[in-house]
């Protein structure tokens, strides 16, 4: 089926699916579909320069993304020839620039998004690393917020679709349809905002590549095919490298020599006299420890024996006191009358 026989919405859907899937094999077809869609949008005056984003119907908002997808898919080209790649990158940059101009003309972005987009556009100039890092963090946070909003709208659309299947009353169906249109509008506005940030990033990369390509095509053919000359390192560096290499070679030779001429058995680490002294010292320490243990046991036994004798003596004394109360020997001595 030719492009002119396909409805405009179906052409856009084909190209959008190819863009989201990043299908390199279908990129050429997608670019052709996009070009046909651009021609038909222009011929039918779907988007008017006298309008703002609030005046554009929800069903037509997505057509603002046509030049963005053209530029993005072209910038992913794998063309190797310098002349042809220069033409492709110039065309891609032209489409992305037109998309950003349309976004600003129709006032699609919020103030925060406009400020971030202006920072990205100005970042093509030389800036310091700290500023570039701060801009990158700001851009990342904004992209993350937009993606979160898109995910929420997608979940809302899924819930609405389920609700429509459960509804049968006409009034409820009409209310749900109005809610769905608001969700669709927010979805495309967020997609355009996200595409604006990506387009500014991609345009910055394209401009840097264009500088390299223009320099490459300006060279004669023989110089372009010739590899870049390799500059010899300074003599001081070569001398240092040679010294380091010599030291490494010497160390490796010593390791190999030690490995080759080592004995087949493990050599002793001490002499016989040293080992005898160690064993005698260990035996002396063991004897001293045994003597101390024997003395401790003898002292414990003596203490136990003395304690037992004292216990017996105390027990005998207690028995005698029980048998001989105090004053018992004088109980019959009475004065005479």
UniProtKB/TrEMBL annotation:
One of its GO terms (cellular component) is cytosol. GO terms for biological process: regulation of dephosphorylation; regulation of signal transduction. Residues 163-182, 281-337 are annotated as: Disordered. Residues 302-324 have a biased composition (Basic and acidic residues). GO terms for molecular function: protein phosphatase 2A binding. Transmembrane segments: none annotated. Residues 281-301 have a biased composition (Low complexity). It comes from the Eukaryota. This is Uncharacterized protein. It comes from Coccomyxa viridis.
């Amino acid at each position: 089926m030719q492009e002119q026989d396909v409805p405009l919405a179906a052409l856009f859907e084909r190209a959008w699916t190819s863009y989201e899937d990043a299908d390199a094999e279908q990129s050429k077809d997608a670019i052709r579909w996009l070009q046909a869609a651009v021609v038909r949008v222009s011929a039918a005056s779907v988007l008017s320069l006298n309008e703002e984003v609030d005046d554009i119907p929800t069903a037509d908002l997505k057509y603002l993304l046509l030049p963005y997808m053209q530029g993005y898919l072209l910038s992913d080209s794998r063309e190797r020839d310098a002349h042809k790649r220069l033409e492709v990158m110039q065309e891609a940059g032209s489409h992305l620039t037109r998309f950003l101009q349309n976004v600003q003309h129709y006032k699609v972005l919020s103030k925060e998004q406009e400020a971030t987009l202006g920072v990205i556009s100005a970042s093509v100039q030389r800036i310091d690393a700290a500023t570039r890092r701060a801009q990158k963090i700001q851009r990342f946070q904004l992209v993350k917020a937009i993606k979160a909003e898109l995910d929420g709208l997608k979940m809302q659309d899924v819930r609405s679709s389920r609700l429509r299947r459960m509804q049968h009353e006409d009034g409820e169906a009409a209310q749900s349809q109005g809610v769905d249109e608001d969700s669709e509008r927010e979805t495309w506005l967020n997609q355009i905002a996200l595409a604006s940030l990506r387009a500014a990033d991609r345009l910055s990369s394209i401009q840097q590549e264009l500088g390299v390509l223009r320099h490459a095509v300006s060279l004669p053919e023989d110089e372009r095919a010739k590899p870049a000359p390799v500059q010899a390192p300074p003599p001081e560096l070569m001398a240092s490298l040679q010294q380091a290499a010599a030291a490494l070679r010497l160390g490796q030779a010593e390791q190999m020599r030690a490995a080759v001429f080592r004995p087949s058995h493990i050599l002793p680490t001490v002499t016989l006299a040293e080992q005898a002294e160690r064993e005698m010292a260990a035996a002396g320490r063991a004897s001293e420890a045994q003597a101390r243990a024997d003395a401790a046991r003898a002292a414990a036994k003596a203490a136990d024996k003395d304690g037992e004798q004292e216990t017996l003596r105390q027990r005998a004394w207690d028995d005698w006191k029980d048998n001989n109360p105090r004053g018992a020997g004088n109980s019959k001595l009475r004065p005479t009358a």
